[in-house]
Amino acid sequence: MRREHFTLDVTNIDWAETDGEPKKPSVAIDFTGPEAMLRERLTGPDGDVLEASETDAALRLQGPLEDDTEGVVSVTNRITGEFILELNEDAGDVLQFIRAARRYGETDGDEGQYRVEITLDGEPFVSYDKRTFLVYDDEGSLLRQHSLIPSGVEL
Q1: How far, in Å, CA of 68 to CA of 112, rounded?
Q2: What strands lie across the sheet with 114-120, from one edge to the other?
Q3: pLDDT-derived band of residue 120, with 50, 70 and 90 as boundaries?
Q4: What residues form DSSP beta bridges with 25?
Q5: What pTM was estimated for this model as a whole?
Q6: Bridge partners of residue 87, in order along the sequence
Q7: Contact residues for 114 (Cβ-Cβ < 8 A; gap 6+)
Q8: What proportions of the chain, in percent to the nearest 5, are helix, strand and coil?
């Protein structure tokens, strides 16, 4: 699978910058590549689609945070550590999304602080409510202050 096969669209984040009414931040990822490969990666050994708790989302910066840098957004299988998908995005945009998700979590006792929806050629495939989004610098070190980590979770 190529990163070019993925497009990402983010909604419900502007309210956090303008102190508007809180809305759950959402990211839609559409995949236009070979469908069978992504379906296989999103399916566990039992044949069922992976649950939200079986996946992790992360941003790996490609340069220093102070620069306008790109990053690689990834979703991985928490059990096996294998990458499910990766795509390039502007790091500033992803960090803005994480800030909105953090603010949403402070205002709403909801289980998930953001939603991820993955579609295959525009057709809904899976939707996850997530609470964690890890951010790593370009050397692979966790940036806790930029990550979305629920209270009580130790890494």
Answers
A1: 29
A2: 6-11, 26-31, 114-120, 123-130
A3: very high
A4: none
A5: 0.89
A6: 73
A7: 24, 25, 26, 27, 97, 100, 101, 104, 129, 130, 133, 148
A8: 25, 35, 40
